[in-house]
Design goal:
The chain is of the alpha+beta class and 170 residues long. 55% of the residues lie in helices and 16% in strands. A hairpin with a 2-residue loop joins strand 5 and strand 6 (142-147).
Length: 170
């Protein structure tokens, strides 16, 4: 007979799933995340978690939606205030595409990046250097780029060769 998880661990798993999902989760989703088969227990623990977050968090909440789904979200009253922050990604899409080419082809020359991405690549490189996601070295008159340790840590990449094998560029 498998050993059952303590309620604290089940609650932590539910909380982690709600936080990481960034979207509403059904009871079945939460059961899978929690590692249990009891809808009643999941509902009970989610409602306890809702009460706890109400007492501790000011701008965040776990909301129960009409379709028996739950979501971890910013309280609606704070949405107009934070909307401008939520709509600005850390790295613009163009710079992110340039970063993906650097990650895939590294080491890559600035000349090759311009051939692939166009002259706007210089703006992207500046942005990526500002975030310390790339490193460069001089080779004669051109620069060679590769991703940095911070890039690997930020994106959770342990092995660059595995990244190359799994990466599909469109």
């Amino acid at each position: 007979m498998p050993q059952s998880l303590p309620d604290g661990e089940i609650t932590a798993r539910i909380e982690a799933a709600l936080y990481a999902a960034g979207r509403p989760l059904s009871i079945n989703d939460l059961m899978r995340a929690a590692g249990i088969n009891s809808k009643e227990k999941v509902v009970k623990l989610v409602h306890e978690l809702i009460r706890k977050t109400r007492n501790v968090l000011t701008a965040l909440e776990i909301a129960e939606l009409d379709d028996d789904k739950f979501v971890f979200q910013v309280k609606p009253v704070y949405m107009p205030l934070i909307r401008r922050f939520a709509q600005q990604p850390l790295i613009p899409v163009g710079a992110l595409k340039t970063l993906s080419f650097i990650a895939y082809e590294q080491p890559i020359t600035s000349k090759r990046l311009v051939q692939i991405r166009g002259s706007q690549v210089y703006t992207h490189l500046k942005e990526l250097r500002a975030h310390a996601f790339i490193e460069s070295e001089r080779l004669g008159r051109m620069k060679i780029y590769r991703t940095s340790r911070k890039f690997q840590e930020y994106f959770g990449i342990n092995d660059l060769s595995t990244l190359k094998n799994n990466m599909i560029l469109k």
